[in-house]
Specification:
The complex is a heterodimer of chains A (about 400) and B (about 240).
Chain A lengths: L1 H17 L7 H9 L3 H6 L5 E6 L4 H14 L4 E3 L7 H11 L10 E5 L2 H10 L4 E4 L7 H4 L2 H14 L3 E5 L3 H4 L6 E6 L1 H4 L21 E9 L2 E6 L2 E6 L5 H17 L5 H8 L8 E7 L2 E7 L3 H11 L5 E5 L24 E5 L3 H10 L4 E5 L2 H10 L5 E5 L1 H12 L5
Parallel strand pairs in A: 1-3, 1-4, 2-3, 4-5, 5-6, 6-7, 11-15, 12-13, 12-15, 13-14
Antiparallel strand pairs in A: 7-8, 8-9, 10-11
Chain B lengths: L4 E6 L10 H12 L5 E6 L11 E4 L4 H23 L4 E4 H6 L3 E3 L5 E3 L6 E18 L3 E15 L7 E5 L9 E2 L1 E3 L2 E4 L5 H4 L1 H15 L12 H11 L4
Parallel strand pairs in B: 1-2, 1-3, 3-4, 4-12, 5-7
Antiparallel strand pairs in B: 5-6, 7-8, 7-9, 9-10, 11-12
Helix pairs in contact in B: 1-5
The chains are: A alpha/beta (about 400), B alpha/beta (about 240).
Chain lengths: ~400, ~240
């Protein structure tokens, strides 16, 4: 049965790739129907088991950090690299790697799953470790309300067998229950730089938690991050940009230390500085001698943190907002972001370019031009000057722009 | 020179879903651009209402937010009712729209009493009504927004509807009514937020407030609304 469905799945994968598709969802769907235990059987055989990383923002980058840090210590890490964070995507990724005999030659699986899919996943597959980053307003039209999102995540953490790593500074995350919980946190002076969902528009609700954190982001100066780990300070010069990524790395360190306690923490830190941004999450491209940074923005918290790290006078800015299903149909969230840090915006684009222009008008940010057509707007934005550029884009807009600026088809 | 317009923002922490902050920003900026001063007073549970209120605004919230304000709303509702009856321009969205009505019946048949300001009642529905919505109002013309609610609202007097549904669900998905417009109080399910892309509604609230301050006041100064109109048009053309 197993060999048959693996063969079937691999076959479909090949065909859908030949047809020019990404080959991600269909084979997963077929396996899910024909061999519902496939995922559990394959993953529960791994010596270190399964790690699930969830939360609203930062999953992809954090999954990348954890996978690379563990790989540097010699583990063979299976991860869902494509950013396809659904169960079917995970099955498809396994199909790529598994032998027809059923042999799946890995030590550990590190998977990013969004809240809803994490719940479905942990009902089927035993999870040894989980890391929950944050609960922020995302696509409310998909998950309903954020309190409900937190309830979904509790299903993941309470079924986690060995250890759950939680963000101490997010009240909805910090109260999640599990057999064993450790926290990562921020030093008091850094707290104000990280709005959680309750204080995004309201600095007053900022509270210091009394829970003890295994890893604390102690200081952040430019790209130099200092982590406090059980009283010892470690500094490192990050390649990853954005203050939120420095903080996600604290969660990643706490998790790696828990998975491989025999490895001194310094050994993980040593490799942290060379980790690069994940797909479309602060990636830097050099196009005709111009630096272009592409920043995914999905929701108010991510956008606000991105602006806190990446708004300056040395760059030209473009913002592309789409309202497809993967972006969220409701663009009300743009009004929960404060754009005043931006000096001016050269282009707005995407299906909701007009909404973005209107939002900027009410923060009195000058907008030079706009075009809903992303190809036109991106090409104009890229060709008008040699100045360094930054593009903020929602998910589907990011995929389009990435394709245009790299000049090749992806996914 | 006009006096300051005082805007009462009901429960900004508990009831702030879906960018309702944008409604306050729109009121403030559209006054500022005309040289009218504004003051926003945030009402938190337990506080007394200020003496002078020119515009009342309240947004939608999650269930947990609604539970936190239930007792306070009960306490201040007689005062709010008097303000609305006296013609205070008011905008309540989603959660507070429902709670401005007579009652809200939950899925397990618990009846929560509303502020009894608007002549309507709401029952929890089975599924959420979600998506872009376009309605028509005789005074303001076409209005665009985004709805996301499970409560089904029934108006006792359908002529009090804020608008007629052109596309989308509206109050209950059945009778084509959306929201409620009573005296100068607008209750609606429209997020988006509603005011930026529908500046006529924003200006109605501002103009009514100024007229109540000064009966001789006639008309607001026109603003360049080309950006607003473009966003309105593009939103009206998005699929549900």
């Amino acid at each position: 049965m197993d060999s048959f469905s693996i063969l079937l799945g691999k076959g479909i994968q090949k065909i859908s790739k030949l047809r020019g598709g990404g080959g991600s969802a269909l084979p997963g769907l077929v396996i899910e129907k024909t061999n519902p235990n496939f995922l559990r059987k394959t993953l529960s055989k791994l010596p270190y088991g399964v790690v699930v990383i969830s939360g609203t923002n930062g999953k992809t980058t954090t999954t990348k950090i954890v996978s690379e840090l563990l790989a540097k210590q010699g583990l063979k890490v299976f991860t869902n690299k494509t950013g396809s964070n659904f169960v079917r995507g995970a099955i498809s990724a396994i199909l790529e790697e598994i032998k027809i005999s059923g042999k799946f030659d890995y030590d550990i699986a590190v998977l990013e799953l969004d809240e809803a899919h994490a719940v479905k996943f942990c009902e089927n597959v035993p999870v040894n470790y989980s890391l929950v980053l944050n609960v922020q307003r995302d696509q409310l039209d998909r998950f309903g309300e954020i309190d409900h999102t937190a309830e979904l995540l509790e299903k993941l953490t309470s079924s986690t067998k060995k250890c759950t790593v939680l963000n101490r500074e997010d009240s909805r995350v910090a109260k999640l229950k599990s057999q064993k919980v450790i926290y990562y946190g921020l030093s008091a002076p850094l707290l104000k730089n990280f709005p959680n969902d309750d204080n995004l528009l309201d600095a007053k609700s900022e509270k210091k938690s009394n829970k003890k954190a295994s890893v604390t982001l102690d200081k952040l100066k430019g790209q130099i991050a200092t982590y406090d780990i059980e009283g010892q300070k470690f500094s490192c010069d990050l390649t990853l940009k954005g203050i939120y990524n420095a903080y996600n790395a604290a969660g990643a360190l706490a998790l790696c230390h828990e998975i491989m306690p025999e490895i001194p923490v310094g050994e993980f830190i040593k490799y942290l500085d060379c980790i690069e941004s994940a797909f479309g999450r602060g990636e830097v491209f050099k196009i005709n001698g111009t630096d272009v940074e592409l920043l995914l923005v999905k929701n108010p918290a991510a956008f606000q943190l991105s602006l806190a790290s990446f708004a300056d006078n040395n760059h030209e800015y473009m913002i592309a907002i789409n309202d497809e299903t993967a972006d969220g149909h409701d663009v009300s969230w743009l009004w929960n972001v404060d754009f005043k840090a931006l000096p001016r915006v050269k282009y707005v684009s995407g299906t909701r370019a007009a909404d973005m222009a209107l939002r900027l008008k009410y923060d009195e940010i000058p907008v030079d031009g706009g075009n809903p057509d992303i190809t036109i707007a991106t090409n104009r934005f890229m060709s008008e000057s040699k100045n360094p550029k930054r593009i903020f884009a929602t998910y589907t807009a990011m995929l389009e722009i990435r394709k245009i600026i790299t000049g090749k088809s992806l996914l | 020179m006009a006096n300051t317009i005082t805007i009462l923002h009901l429960y900004p922490r508990e009831m702030n879903l879906y960018g309702d902050h944008g409604n306050i920003l729109t009121l403030v900026k559209r006054c500022e651009w005309r040289g009218i001063k504004t003051k926003v007073i945030e009402h938190e549970p337990g506080q007394a209402l200020p003496k002078k209120i020119d515009i009342i605004f309240g947004g939608g919230g999650q269930d947990s937010g609604q539970n936190k304000i239930e007792a306070d709303l009960k306490k201040i509702s007689p005062e709010l009712k008097k303000l609305v009856e006296n013609g205070t321009p008011t905008l309540v969205i989603c959660g507070l729209y429902q709670l401005f009505g007579k009652s809200f019946t939950t899925q397990d048949q618990r009846v929560i009493k509303g502020a009894n300001i608007l002549n309507l009642s709401t029952t929890a529905g089975e599924e959420r009504l979600i998506g872009n919505i376009v309605i028509k109002n005789n005074q303001f013309g076409q209005i665009v927004g985004y709805e996301n609610h499970s409560g089904l609202t029934t108006l006792e007097d359908k002529s009090q509807a804020f608008g007629e549904v052109i596309s989308g669900a509206g109050n209950n998905g059945e009778d084509q009514t959306e929201g409620c417009f009573y005296k100068n109080c607008i209750g609606t399910y429209l997020h988006g937020p509603i005011l930026p892309k529908n500046p006529k509604v924003a200006d109605f609230l501002i103009e009514t407030a100024l007229k109540r301050q000064n009966p001789k006041f006639t008309k607001l100064q026109e603003l360049d609304d080309s950006v607003e109109k473009a966003a309105h048009k593009s939103a009206a053309n998005r699929p549900r």
